[in-house]
Amino acid sequence: ELIERKLAEAAKVPATATPRRWPRRQISSSVPVLVGDSPARIVDVGYGGVRLEVESDRNVPDSFRLTLSGHISVPVNVVWNRRRGDIWQYGVAVNEEHQPAWRELVDTLS
To answer: Which of 6, 11, 82, 92 could form a disulfide with 76 if both were Cys (CB 3.0 to 4.6 A apart)?
Structure first.
């Protein structure tokens, strides 16, 4: 039964998907977040970064400061993006030197 479940889960993952270093977590409540000066929404977080949703008319640079709750700001780099209807999703990685503090923050969010 365990093997069948694992095989079924593996079949859902595209063959080109890169394995994640850290699991993604849903956050327990809405956290105000800004991409530069534009509002965004956190979809999920991990120790390495975050997946965001931004309205399609926003221009997101390759690197920017992600601001949470109006006072926590970390530099991030866009790793991937994709459009889903009128919304753009971005996977961003937290810069290496800020990851220890980011990991503590992730533990408080999820």
So the answer is: 92
Residues 6+ apart with CB under 8 A from 44: 24, 25, 26, 27, 50, 51
HSE-up (13 A, CA, CB side) for residue 13: 11
The C-alpha atoms of residue 29 and residue 15 are separated, in whole angstroms, by 32
Tokens 């965004």 -> residue: 40
The DSSP symbol for 30 reads: -
CA-closest candidate to residue 43, choices 106, 87, 89: 89
Structure tokens belonging to residue 9:
């889960």
Name which of 52, 45, 62, 56 is nearest 104 in CA terms.
45
Residue 99 clears pLDDT 70, i.e. is over it: yes
From CA 85, how far away is CA 108, in angstroms rounded?
Answer: 31
For the stretch 43-83, pLDDT in tens is 999 999 999 999 876 778 999 999 988 788 999 999 999 99
